[in-house]
Design goal:
The complex is a heterodimer of chains A (248) and B (489). Chain A is built from nine helices and ten strands. With 248 residues, chain A is α/β, with parallel strands linked by helices. The relative contact order of chain A is 0.19. Chain B is globular and about 60 Å long. Classes of the chains: A alpha/beta (248), B alpha+beta (489). The complex binds iron/sulfur cluster.
Chain lengths: 248, 489
């Protein structure tokens, strides 16, 4: 009994009051690329990037591929790259994931009136991992812990796709999971949507060149939300989904 | 010197054995009490297969036995005398089509190669009888976890046999590892099993450094060991939170869960990632800690130790917890040894196997005592993880006393030595992570074998649930806490 009370006292209040304003110290999140000119013919960042996330002229990072390894920071002679602790970088379109040199930060996800009226007060999500390494899965699980407490917004994980409004996909989509992913989707009632969570789901990430993937599902059913990271910080997901649903 | 159990040998210097001599030597080594760390194959010239057995003597020394053989000839199975070989023989058979005569059942390990996409063909064991019923679960499970298919063969509530079909997560890791520059593989290696990024990264770095003749700065080595224990604390906390949730002990679930946040946020302060990604790189480490940060890390460790002790008392002292875990999912010491279980799954069954105990490098200066439990049930696996958290926190606190700063430091890597085989074994939170790299005559990477402890331990789970109630499966599963990706690669 006393132990139980002590646990409760130690716990105090753990929840993050406003996830959209939280900035986790030390996190390597949304990059900023300075407009400083590049050395002539320099391709060091693009060469060093393990996921071919960097485009040149102008220098830009595709957050859908980036795994936030910061190799580009280390190799750039002009020190153009900086990874800030900002977690807000979800996007409603694939093109919304590009960060360009000197450009403005990607804008927050626009609220969807349709999704807001359908799911703004209650949203049930079913997660399916199709090659997710358990990094994304752990961060999605963390969303339900006392810190992020996603349930306070009426957003919950459900066990069956039949109860789900949204399918949150993790992993690069392996061939061996292709049938199961499609079956899960087919079992979901309309209206329904897909969220691509993590670099692997968005682009294949470090596995994009693997011959044993089948990403056809995402070609057939485009995501309404892209959550970048490797794995994404739980806050990246919370902010993006709340923005999309026009909550708060 | 590396702190990991490691070995590097010139391949031309290895005895050229044929199948018969090789399997006789492997048998002899196992009969004298050595253990099989891994057994794997790769294609060799002229359509042959080169198979490698890595053995470990009780004092920790590694040895390698290599044979080159025609696949259609293969060898006579080791698994009947030494069941620990069963998964390795199945893997060699699946990857290279090598015949393993008289193997009990050469089922696919991960549906790769010619087996790709044939998930529906899995040969499930059949239990015959009018009263027998089967329960199929997966590949998509009820929680937010990785996929795998389970089929229970039951009589009433009692599970007589569980089949675990894996492979859904197969991403082609081993193939991709051969495509890139061998010195830049860390980001890929960190996602082999994403909850074990540090252990896999360290095994890769150590094996590569041995090939490149690179001496890692002492500080960087110390920082790697620091990272590994933080990963262990975080994942043991995640496991305990899961176990508590599965038996409806909410206070444990929420408290262990939020304490994990403290542990992973400590890693994030040092390297930018909650999973320690980017911390290790070949030649050294990229984590930075100054005096200020050391104070914060010290405070986090103290908070963890203090709060964990309190929730442990509540958790271990609740009869409801003990009642749910004790006597459930028991694996005897003998079974653990025969099946070749590793990590906490072995130590909870009385097998004192821990690579850190061999005391190389940083572990010579600051040893890690090995935790062992005897009862082999879910209770033992939970208590063991609680003990290991305490040991790791103590070790981290002592290590922090000695080293208050880490600098990002990397020694230069030379060219990789040609025709060499390098093996490194790192004791991750789930057990030993094994990476074997072999170079060709020009110093290019010829073969890369990755082994997550899950490959061996999945069979331990199947074994543990026999004669248990099917409703106890979730806690058995959580108590083993295995990786699907780590098996499926
Ligand atoms: S941080 Fe992103 S863009 Fe930079 S090298 Fe790594 S993956 Fe590429």
């Amino acid at each position: 009994m006393f132990d139980s009370l002590k646990v409760r006292l130690n716990q105090g209040w753990q929840y993050i009051p406003d996830p959209r304003r939280a900035v986790p110290a030390g996190f390597k999140g949304r990059p900023v690329i300075s407009a400083a000119p590049c050395g002539t013919g320099c391709t060091k960042c693009a060469d060093a990037c393990p996921t071919k996330a960097i485009g040149l002229e102008p220098v830009r990072i595709d957050l859908g591929r980036c795994i936030f390894c910061t190799e580009c920071v280390a190799v750039c002679p002009e020190k153009k790259f900086e990874f800030t602790p900002e977690t807000r970088m979800g996007a409603a379109s694939r093109s919304g994931l590009t960060v360009s040199a000197g450009g403005p930060p990607p804008s927050p996800v626009d609220a969807s009136a349709a999704l807001k009226s359908l799911f703004g007060r209650s949203l049930k999500l079913r997660q399916v991992s199709a090659g997710g390494c358990n990094g994304c899965e752990l961060e999605l699980n963390a969303l339900a812990n006392v810190n992020f407490d996603l349930q306070r917004y009426g957003i919950e994980w459900v066990a069956s796709p039949r109860h789900a409004d949204g399918l949150v996909l993790t992993g690069p989509l392996t061939q061996n999971m292709a049938d199961a992913v499609q079956l899960s989707w087919d079992a979901m009632p309309e209206p329904r949507f897909v969220v691509a969570f993590g670099a692997c789901a968005i682009s294949g990430g470090p596995f994009m060149e693997s011959p044993v993937l089948d990403r056809g599902f995402l070609d057939r059913v485009g995501p309404v939300l892209y959550v970048p990271g490797c794995p994404p910080h739980p806050l990246t997901f919370v902010s993006a989904i709340l923005d999309l649903l026009g909550v708060g | 010197m590396s702190s990991l159990t490691a070995l590097a040998v010139d391949v031309p210097g290895l005895a050229a054995l044929d199948a018969r001599a090789w399997s006789a030597e492997v048998r002899a080594a196992l009969a004298r009490g050595e253990r099989l760390v891994t057994l794997y194959g790769r294609p060799a010239e002229g359509g042959e297969a080169a198979v490698t057995a890595v053995l470990q003597a009780p004092q920790g020394g590694l040895g390698v036995l290599r044979a080159t053989l025609p696949p259609e000839q293969g060898w006579h199975t080791l698994s009947r005398e030494f069941p620990a070989a069963q998964c390795f023989e199945r893997e060699v058979h699946e990857q290279l089509g090598v015949r393993v005569a008289d193997h009990p059942w050469l089922k696919p390990v991960r549906y790769e190669g010619a087996n790709l996409r044939k998930m529906k063909d899995y040969p499930f064991y059949k239990l015959e009888g009018k009263e027998v019923h089967e329960v199929a679960v997966g590949p998509v499970h009820a929680g937010v976890i990785e996929p795998g298919a389970f089929r229970f063969m039951c009589l009433g509530e009692t599970v007589h046999h569980l089949e675990i079909q894996l492979g859904y997560q197969h991403r082609g890791v081993e193939g991709l590892l051969l495509k890139g520059d061998p010195r830049s593989l860390t980001p890929l290696v960190e996602t082999v099993a994403g909850d074990t990024s540090i252990a896999h990264a360290w095994a890769y770095c150590a094996a590569l450094e041995a090939l490149a003749g690179c001496a890692v700065p002492e500080d960087a080595e110390a920082s790697r060991a620091f990272a590994l224990e933080l990963e262990r604390v975080a994942m043991h906390l995640a496991g305990l939170a899961g176990l508590a949730a599965d038996i409806g002990f909410q206070q444990g679930a929420s408290t262990y869960g939020r304490l994990r946040t403290t542990a992973i946020n400590t890693s994030m302060r040092l390297c930018g990632s909650r999973f320690g990604r980017g911390w290790l790189r070949p030649g050294g480490s990229r984590a930075a800690m100054d005096g200020e940060l050391a104070k914060l890390v010290g405070a986090n460790l103290a908070l963890l130790a203090g709060d964990i002790a309190v929730i442990n008392r509540a958790f271990l002292g609740a009869w409801t917890v003990r009642d749910r875990f004790a006597g459930v999912g028991t694996v005897s010491r003998r079974a653990a040894l025969e099946l070749g279980l590793v990590g906490p799954s072995a130590r909870a069954s009385g097998v004192a196997l821990d690579q850190r105990a061999f005391g190389a490098g940083v572990y010579a200066a600051l040893p890690v005592p090995t935790s062992v439990q005897d009862s082999g049930d879910c209770w033992a696996r939970a208590v063991l993880r609680i003990e290991e958290i305490a040991v790791s926190l103590k070790w981290l606190t002592d290590a922090l006393e000695r080293t208050r700063t880490f600098k990002p430091e990397r020694a230069a890597l030379g060219a990789l030595a040609p025709n060499r085989l390098s093996v490194a074994v790192c004791e991750g939170w789930r057990g030993e992570v094994v990476h074997c790299l072999e170079t060709d005559a020009r110093g290019g990477l010829l073969h890369y074998k990755v082994q997550d402890p899950s490959l061996r331990n999945w069979f331990g789970l199947a074994f543990a649930v026999r004669e248990n109630e099917i409703s106890d499966f979730p806690i058995c599963n959580k108590s083993f806490d295995l990786s699907y990706c780590g098996n499926d690669l």
